[in-house]
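Protein Record: Sequence and Backbone Structure Tokens
======================================================

Structure line: whole-number tokens from a learned vocabulary of local backbone shapes, matched to residues.

Purpose: to set a sequence beside its fold so the mapping can be learned.

___
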Amino acid sequence: MSEKIAGVAIPDSTLARAATELIHSTTPALIFHHSRRVYLFGSLQAEALGLRPDPELLYVAALFHDTGLVAPYRGDDQRFEMDGADQARAFLLSHGCSEGDADTVWTAVALHTTPEVPYGMAPEVAATTAGVETDVLGLHLDRITRARIGEVTAAHPRPDFKRQILQAFADGFGHRPNTTFGTVNADVLEHFAPGFRRTDFVDVIQNSDWPE
């Protein structure tokens, strides 16, 4: 029988078990517990919004969404979200999933820090972002009962989470600051990277190679 937390069933397929084992064994506890909470909160927010994401695809998206912050998944040349998206897509394809499902999960992971846009996309994309926004930003906690929130955090505690996740962000993309242009990630480096100055969109336009 599959495990249930706060009324949400944890997928127990071969694919889901492989994803759990992989992420649990290759990422810090901070990332693993956060990722499981993202699945749970994403499922609960989807329920409140009347969305019906595929649980297995949502679970994989949630587990992989922050892998781009840490070794061995972290790269040097692109946004951390895309590192995780690439890993999730490769994982799904290697386990016989369709290109369409892999693309949906890729999109869910790649856009999980992008405000608003995911809510106009597939349920798995919307629910991944909803779970992230709930756990990291505390958005729309009022849609979930206190009892259910308590069950989620009892199963996957979040001690000192605000400080630790911000440090994980800073460590995860501090070495590739140019990838934060136009993203919320630049806010993190403004706070934690001495001497960092975000690339200004207006400056880029005004100083472009186009003559006026």
Remarks:
- The chain has ten helices and two strands.
